[in-house]
Amino acid sequence: MSCMNNFAGFSDVIRSSFAAARVSRYRSSRRLAGAWLACVLTMVIGATISSTAQAGPADTMIKAVKFDDVEAVRKLLAAGVDPNLVDAGGMPMLVLAAREKSGKVAALLADQPKTDLEKLDRAGENAMMLAALNGETGLVKHLIEKGAEVNKSGWTPLHYAATTGQDEVVKLLIDHFAYIDAASPNGTTPLMMAARGGHITTVKLLLDDGADLTLKNQLGLTAIDFAKQYNQKDIADGLAARLEKIQAQQRQKDSRPPATAGSNAGSAGSAK
């Protein structure tokens, strides 16, 4: 019995020893886990700080462009920030400035010799296109003066100006030899876009400068069809009346008998 009691006591000691060992291992594991976590956090925080430090000028540039802070942009450019920097969405700074109507910054960026005036965003839009869309006549003029292309394949600044009825920009672009019937990738013309948007004065301006209202895009739609499809009745009726007048003039011209050599000679003789 005494032996058993001793054995029981010994068992208690063993259990206590194992329990203590488990506690010790648990505490040791916690210490190791804590040290590992601290190490990981240090690396993550360090990397974040490093990344922030590296991205700082770019973030500052983007913010300055959005707020048209021309002095901040000037300092960043002097410090070596690339004027062709793009934001996380792939938008070049000049395009961003045009989109945000940051005219002073846009002009400054356009003045930089290294700036690519034709650089596109991911949607295929350049600075002049967005300036035209927003009716920023001064910026469009400045870009032209700096050598930006008025004409390009596909969608053009004239399409964009016509879409929102920016007559002043439309006139400026035409005066600088914008192709009046420029075709988008599916053959849509500026006149079609103006008709779609219900911009009567823009439609008239384009027609007066020679836009062809008989053209069709790849879907077989004319400017009249665009006007009808988007419930621009006045424009649809006006274009239809103009087309009928053109066709009547053509029929009249075609119905005239061709001049003969004899009649021409007689006319010449009479003139003598």
Automatic annotation (TrEMBL):
Low complexity bias (residue ranges): 259-272
Higher taxonomy: Bacteria, Pseudomonadati, Pseudomonadota, Betaproteobacteria, Burkholderiales
Disordered: annotated span: 246-272
Keywords: ANK repeat, Repeat
Organism domain of life: Bacteria
InterPro entries given in the database record: Ankyrin_rpt, Ankyrin_rpt-contain_sf
First and last residues of every ANK repeat: 123-155, 153-185, 186-218
Protein name: Ankyrin homolog
PANTHER family per UniProt: ANKYRIN REPEAT CONTAINING (PTHR24173), ANKYRIN REPEAT DOMAIN-CONTAINING PROTEIN 16 (PTHR24173:SF74)
Gene3D superfamilies, per the entry: Ankyrin repeat-containing domain
